[in-house]
Specification:
- This protein is of the alpha/beta class.
- It has a single domain, classed as Response regulator (Rossmann fold), CATH 3.40.50.
- Helix content is 37%, strand content 16%.
- The chain contains four helices and four strands; from the N terminus they run E-H-E-H-E-H-E-H.
- The protein has a four-stranded parallel sheet.
- Helix 3 (83-88) links the parallel strand 3 (77-80) and strand 4 (97-100).
- Helix 2 (46-53) packs across helix 4 (113-137).
- The longest helix has 25 residues, at 113-137.
- The radius of gyration is 14 Å and the shape is globular.
- The model has no long low-confidence stretch (mean pLDDT 90).
Length: 140
């Protein structure tokens, strides 16, 4: 059985798309081939790593990747997780299903480290809920 291919896309591939990739690998990695990328690459945000570790998912070894690396490859789903990436997302073949889930950018949060971590936790939980809903619509 061929796995469906899913690409998560955000601006920097530092938090939202990384968390989505980590969750989908954990929830249904046996059903999907999963990657994430950014329209620009930076680094995986330390608070994204920490927030995911709290729920037992390691982002250790994840690196920030640019979208260019994945262009020209066949994808069943391209899921943008921020408005900027949705606006800047290039065209994919017609058979690729484009999905947009606009989550706030947790890296823009100010305040103490604990307050900032709270925002990363909220976005993490929103991503998990959206993925669970989406998985419920996917045929096994």
């Amino acid at each position: 059985m061929t796995k469906a291919r899913v690409l998560f896309l955000c601006t920097h591939n530092s938090a939202r798309s990384q968390m989505a990739e980590g969750f989908l690998r954990d929830m249904a990695g046996d059903r999907f081939e999963i990657a994430s990328a950014g329209t620009e690459a930076t680094r995986v945000h330390p608070l994204a790593i920490r927030a995911m570790e709290e729920v037992g998912i390691s982002l250790a070894g994840h690196t920030s990747k640019t979208l260019d690396r994945f262009l020209g490859q066949p994808w069943d789903y391209v899921i943008t997780v921020c408005d900027s990436a949705n606006e800047r997302c290039p065209a994919f073949p017609a058979k690729t299903q484009r999905i947009h889930w606009g989550f706030d950018d947790p890296s823009r949060t100010t305040g103490t480290e604990e307050e900032r971590l709270g925002t990363f936790r909220r976005i993490r939980d929103e991503i998990k809920a959206r993925l669970l809903d989406w998985l419920g619509t996917q045929a096994r």
